[in-house]
Write a structure and sequence with these properties.
The complex is a heterotrimer of chains A (about 325), B (about 250) and C (about 300). By secondary structure, chain A is mostly helical. Helix content of chain A is about 70%, strand content about 0%. Chain A has a two-stranded antiparallel ribbon with strand order 1-2. The relative contact order of chain B is 0.18. Classes of the chains: A mainly alpha (about 325), B alpha/beta (about 250), C mainly alpha (about 300). Chains in contact: A-B, A-C, B-C.
């Protein structure tokens, strides 16, 4: 279905260009927030792939933080090219994801969540005490350049925004095609019935590792983007509450959307920005209630709202018997 | 001639209880064999050992002359020994068509590592194969329904259909008619047997309903307390005295 | 030698405290299969409740050991106010759902409770300094310990043994065990599973508030103590095996001794050690030291 791939790529390109143009006319703080949303949305996108398999990682901050530190530390060495740094962060977090995924793929449910959490806390503990890596103060990140082009002044943020937009757009196209692909469909069926997959001849473990590596890579890219836009990285990127935040947004998004991953991130950041300023001691309460309500009423998140509208009516084919 | 399936001296005990005690069975391609016996007689244990869910304590299992004892379920499946389940093992959240597409892609591509992360799972070729199974198992009407929306019988058909896609040499059906409404059992089995008619496959099914057994099985293997009590042409086996006494309960 | 003893004593003291904090978490998981992320926030609420009572003008005049009773009362009141309400009104809505969904629900709940704490008690620190000196100092060789620390060790032993005995030696315990084993069969046998859930969750909340109440004298009570407590409790219960009381005890000692070793020998590795041990246990024995795996039937 080449036409599908072409259509999606063209659609994403059009959307990216439209947003890039729009970005030229908004105030700096909005642009900054948008860049943040794109970065974090990538992490969420990866978690959506895992959620499709009913896997929730309470330690995605590990790869996010790894990507950010790779980007930051390499930029300290005087290499500031955004493309190269992002690539390096993606590669690094993919390798970490692959190595850890080999072990993690044997775990499900709360054990998967907790193992990820433990691993991310190890990184947090190490970074916090490593003087050479900045300890609890973290590390500064040099302003990025783009294939030799070094924007300055007001242009700096805008150019970065366009860069982040391009990265997020490309990742989204890949993620979309992936979810529709042979591998993607097989992965989506893991949560329903691992036994059937094994009895079809597929290794569930392989599928989980594959998705895990994609998720880690996306988290690493997100981390690199955050490092570049904020200009500073700290161990808290690996702390479990950071991961919890990503899980929160992922649940809000639901597993089946691409745009919804970024949409949910935007909602989250907006609530934090607006509510955090106006009611600093109760915005988490607002978020928590929001989460409970969405789990209760939108079991498939924002993406589920659109999906349900498209699904055909369940006709008179008798009552579904849920045997699991 | 190489047998589709051959089990030699299978033994399996759970906490001292013998679920399989020296079970030896040979099945040839094209045969339709019913496994009968009371609950706990060892039928499912036998199927689980053959398909790799359980590892026998001793004994060997061969399929087309190849030893498959102790292999993983997915390895055994790839060697042409497939199964359906008492409780249908299908993907509840996917449509029936998507369920079959997963199976089709496995049949076409083999192991997960050969699956493409970019090529559309519903490409024309794959869709055609899924269509063909939908038609053969009379599931066309429900193709867009999710598996958890359809009746128990439909899910069972889907389960068997998924096991059939890769053209297995041995197909084991674990209580295919359990969960199917009693007045639909014959219609259900007709669909299954017609769908399998053109396959070059040895079919084994576990069954409690003797009417079904008489109507569809060429041969019956009777299990009792982990042993094979009788093995022969359907009527011969069902007419043995000890089979009547212990299993079918129709002894005078 | 002194170092070895210091590690041992610190480890026991810290481990006892960890056990006190984590036992409710493992109990609730054992009975209800809910990994309650809000356990930490409930612990914090226990600490605030105790502080509020002890520092109130009415109870403030109470002196001596009776203060401990006031703290206990704080824990009981907080648990009775929150436990039944949360179980009946909130969690009940999600019982049909997956284990992981319930984890997310309690995660949302923890966010809500954290802000509730800020709204009720503010963001500044609260203190309950009095009771910490109740038991004086204890001198062991060249080392000094605060007597209250040993009171915590005693409390942990009492709470742990008490819970264990109730579960294993009483009729109520048998009913709960049966629900732990299989809630559907229990229901079929006529056991009121809803009531067991209500009781177990409320008791789990009480164990959290109890731990908070008796930790209060040792710390500055701030809204973040819950987050720190839950993350440590996770390590304890995962190491021990989710749902196992004995496991939590062993897990608490393992974490306590590892942390004490790190602090005495290699201070930089404090956090690292705890979570490295947790990962190692998950790797070698995924079900935890005392956990059980269930094979799925097909």
């Amino acid at each position: 279905m080449l036409s599908l791939q072409r259509n999606v790529a063209l659609g994403a390109l059009a959307l990216t260009i439209a947003l890039a143009v729009l970005g030229a006319f908004v105030p700096e703080w909005i642009l900054y927030t948008c860049a943040l949303v794109l970065a974090k949305g990538l992490v969420v996108l990866g978690l959506c792939l895992l959620l499709r398999m009913n896997l929730v990682s309470f330690g995605q901050g590990l790869y996010y933080c790894a990507g950010a530190y790779i980007c930051g530390l390499v930029s300290q060495m005087g290499i500031s090219d955004a493309f190269f740094l992002t690539f390096l962060a993606a590669l690094g977090s993919a390798v970490v994801g692959l190595i850890l995924g080999l072990f993690l793929s044997g775990y499900r449910s709360v054990f998967f969540a907790m193992f990820n959490l433990a691993l991310s806390m190890i990184l947090y503990g190490v970074l916090l005490k490593s003087i050479s890596l900045g300890g609890s103060d973290g590390v500064g990140v040099a302003a990025p350049t783009y294939l030799g082009y070094a924007p300055d002044g007001e242009m700096r943020l805008y150019v970065f925004f366009v860069f982040a937009l391009a990265v997020a757009g490309a990742s989204s196209v890949f993620a979309f095609l992936y979810t529709k692909s042979e591998m993607g469909l097989a992965s989506a069926s893991v949560k329903d019935c691992e036994i059937r997959l094994e009895y079809l001849g597929l290794s569930v473990r392989y599928l989980i590792i594959f998705n895990f590596v994609i998720a880690s890579t996306l988290a690493g890219i997100g981390g690199a983007l955050v490092a570049m836009v904020s200009g500073h990285i700290i161990p808290e990127l690996a702390y479990w509450t950071t991961s919890g935040e990503f899980v929160f947004i992922t649940v809000l998004s639901g597993p089946n959307g691409i745009l919804s991953a970024f949409g949910a991130t935007a909602v989250f950041e907006t609530i934090r920005l607006v509510a955090g300023q106006n009611m600093p001691n109760s915005w988490q309460m607002l978020l928590g209630s929001f989460l409970l309500l969405s789990i209760l009423f939108m079991p498939n998140g924002i993406s589920g709202l659109f999906r349900r509208a498209k699904a055909p009516k369940p006709d008179a084919v008798g009552e579904g018997i849920n045997n699991d | 001639m190489i047998e589709a399936l051959e089990a030699r001296g299978l033994k399996k005990a759970f906490n001292g209880v013998k679920a399989a005690d020296d079970v030896s069975v040979v099945i040839r391609s094209g045969e339709i064999v019913s496994l009968i016996g009371a609950n706990g007689a060892g039928k499912t244990t036998f199927v689980n050992m053959v398909t790799g869910y359980l590892k026998p304590d001793s004994g060997t299992i061969l399929s087309q002359g190849r030893e498959i004892t102790g292999l993983k379920p997915r390895e055994i499946t790839r060697l042409g020994v497939c199964r359906s389940f008492q409780i249908p093992q299908v993907f509840n959240d996917l449509s029936l068509e998507e369920n079959l597409l997963v199976a089709v892609n496995v049949a076409l591509k083999g192991a997960a590592r050969s699956h493409s992360p970019l090529r559309n799972a519903g490409n024309r070729n794959a869709r055609q194969m899924a269509d063909e199974i939908l038609v053969r198992f009379k599931l066309e009407d429900y193709r867009h329904n999710r598996a958890n929306e359809v009746s128990g019988g439909t899910r069972k058909l889907l389960d068997v259909g998924m096991a059939t896609i890769s053209h297995p040499r041995v197909l084991l059906l674990d209580e295919p008619t359990s969960g199917v409404a009693s007045n639909e059992k014959f219609a259900f089995m007709d669909v299954v047997m017609n769908a399998l008619a053109d396959e070059e496959v040895a079919v084994m099914f576990i069954e409690h309903d003797m009417d079904i057994v008489r109507r569809y099985a060429h041969r019956v293997i009777v299990f009792h307390e982990g042993r094979v009590l009788a093995d022969g042409a359907t009527e011969d086996a069902l007419n043995q005295d000890d089979v009547k006494r212990y299993v079918t309960g129709s002894a005078a | 030698m002194d170092i070895a003893f210091a590690i041992f004593a610190d480890g026991i003291i810290y481990g006892a405290w960890l056990f006190l904090v984590a036992i409710g978490l493992t109990l609730v998981f054992g009975v209800m299969k809910i990994l309650n992320v809000a356990h930490g926030a409930l612990y914090a609420i226990g600490a605030y409740a105790a502080a509020t009572l002890v520092n109130s003008s009415f109870f403030g005049q109470i002196e001596g050991m009776a203060v401990l009773i006031v703290m206990l009362a704080g824990a009981v009141i907080a648990a009775l106010l929150l436990g039944p309400f949360l179980e009946r009104v909130l969690l009940r809505l999600f019982y049909e759902r997956d284990e992981i969904v319930l984890l997310l629900v309690t995660f949302g709940l923890s966010l809500i409770l954290e802000d509730l704490i800020k709204l009720i008690w503010g963001v500044y620190s609260h203190y309950v300094p009095g009771p910490y000196a109740l038991f004086g100092d204890v001198e062991i060789g060249p080392l000094f310990y605060v007597g209250y620390d040993f009171f915590i060790v005693g409390l942990a032993v009492v709470v742990g043994l008490g819970t264990y005995l109730v579960l294993n030696r009483t009729n109520v315990g048998k009913v709960v065990q049966s629900v732990i084993h299989d809630d559907e069969i229990s229901r079929a046998m006529g056991i009121n599973v809803a009531r067991v859930y209500l009781g177990a969750f409320t008791f789990g909340v009480f164990l959290a508030t109890l731990a908070g109440a008796f930790t209060a004298p040792m710390i500055a009570i701030t809204p973040t103590i819950g987050v720190n407590a839950i993350i440590l409790s996770f390590a304890v219960v995962v190491i021990g095996g989710l749902g196992s009381i004995q496991g939590a005890a062993i897990g608490a000692l393992v974490v306590g001794l590892s942390r004490a070793s790190a602090i005495n020998l290699w201070p930089e590795a404090e956090l690292f050690v705890i979570y490295a041990v947790m990962s190692l246990v998950l790797l070698v024995r995924p079900e935890g030291l005392f956990g059980q795996i269930q094979q799925r039937k097909i």
